[in-house]
Amino acid sequence: MKKQLGNNYYNTIVSNEDNENYDLLLNDVNAALFDYSDHHAANKPSSKSLLKNFVINKLFFVFYFRNKLKSKYNGRNIILSNAYINLDIPTSITLLPPWQFSIAKISLGNWRITMIIRKLNLIRKKKSIRLLLSDKFKSLRIEFEKELNILFAKNKVLAIIVSNDMAFFEKLSLKIARENAIPSFVYLHGLPARYNCIDDNRADYLIVWGTGLKQLYKNVGVREDKILTLKHPFYSSFDSVTLNSNLTNVLVLTKATCGVPCDSSKLTLTERSTVLYYTELVKENLKKLGVKCAILRLHPSEDADFYLKNLTDDFFIIDSLPKNESLIRASLVIGPSSTMIFDALKIGVNYVLFDPIFEGLTLEGLPLVSPFTGDSFVKLSNNFKDMVYNINNPDKNICYDKLNDFLSIDINDENKFLNIINANS
After folding, report:
1. What single string gives the DSSP state of each residue in 351-406?
2. pLDDT over 90, % of the chain
3. Which of 185, 121, 189, 118 is nearest to 157 (CA)?
4. Residue 137 and residue 170: Cα distance in Å, rounded?
5. In sequence order, what are the beta bridge partners of 349?
6. What is the pLDDT of residues 283-314, one digit of tens each?
């Protein structure tokens, strides 16, 4: 695993560390250095975030004892998963990993590991590189690894499935799974804005939604035999329909930027006004078409107040509806590269991909990646002329044959997935 390009300070102060230890804290160190703007909801105190922190930090024992009361597994094998998809695997029970609590789901854990996780998180939330590299944090991390080893062995964990392999606890759990010969999986939860041979490649296997995604990972050097294609419960196939595409109620998606660099092969920092600049470009084009106002839907990570205090007019109305209700009301969706294209098409609304390219790069300074390059199942609107054409010609904008090919799966992969998990049962 090669080190990330950039972040010279971190590269210098840990130059003697092996790559695995370097990689373990990379995401947290980058968060300490770069993730501070209030356009990310997590960085701004709100009643919702304060309540969430209160529940997690003060009422965690409620979740803990509820888990203990319900932790009667009747001898069933355990799979740990925080994937965004609910898995139904015969003869096994799927539980959340110990660092996650949920009202709806049960976590696997014990009192000792829960307390260690709380102490680790208290340090991580301070976003201090000095604390992250301290002996105290290292000691807590070693304790966590020891307790996770015991937890895996005691509860006969058959597999671990994570939604990403960049975050701290996910990386640690993959390390412990590897040491215990427990198969591990990254279950992709969207269409990435980047492909490299480091990210999504730290587990034994990578689960993607279709052969199109599998090919994209193969192209950057991920081994073909470790990539599994499993059918998504909602996005697996699309019927060709006449898409709603007019200007009566336009829904615009923001071009959200990552607070922490999301590519471990290079360091690209996006200028923070990009999110506002994108909305301005869309507004200018819509005004040329006679649109007086539009609905602006934020990414879940974004803060509405950031837009309200920085947008200079009332052209956009911030969307507050649930996703599906908002899409049902929309007559057209305009947005950047986003998995939301699938949601729009499922509802029957045209998705106009507007992702301007300047000197070969997107507004974030990144290369545009398939399937958003204009030669896959959706056309790219790079300017006003393209946008008008793709609004007026939804049947030319979306190619359902290419879309279903992109999401097609290898029929043998589901059995392969189950065989891997059940090999040690």
Report:
1. EEEE---BTTB-TTS----TTSSSSSSB-EE-SHHHHHHHHH-HHHHB-HHHHHHH
2. 64
3. 185
4. 17
5. 244
6. 999 999 999 999 999 998 888 998 999 999 99
Q: Would you state the structure tokens that stand for residue 202, as one six-digit string?
A: 């730290």
Q: Which amino acid is at 281?
A: L
C-alpha to C-alpha distances, 27 to 16, 19, 170, nearest whole angstrom:
18, 14, 11
Q: Would you say 173 and 162 are in contact if contact means Cβ atoms under 8 Å apart?
A: yes
| Neighbour-count burial of 112, counting CB atoms closer than 10 A to its CB (0-12 exposed, 13-18 middle, 19+ buried) | middle
CA-closest candidate to residue 244, choices 389, 394, 401: 394
Q: Report how far residue 85's alpha carbon sits from residue 76's, in angstroms, rounded to the nearest whole number.
A: 20
CB 234 within 8 A of CB 346: yes
- Measured CA to CA, the distance from residue 65 to residue 152 in angstroms comes to 20
For the chain, what is the largest distance between any 2 Cα atoms, rounded to a whole number of angstroms? 65
Distance separating alpha carbons of residues 365 and 373, to the nearest angstrom: 15
Quick one: which of 80, 91, 89, 370 has its CA closest to 230? 89
Q: Evaluate whether 136 touches 41 at the Cβ level (below 8 Å).
A: no
Dump pLDDT digits (tens) for 256-284.
887 777 888 888 878 878 999 999 999 99
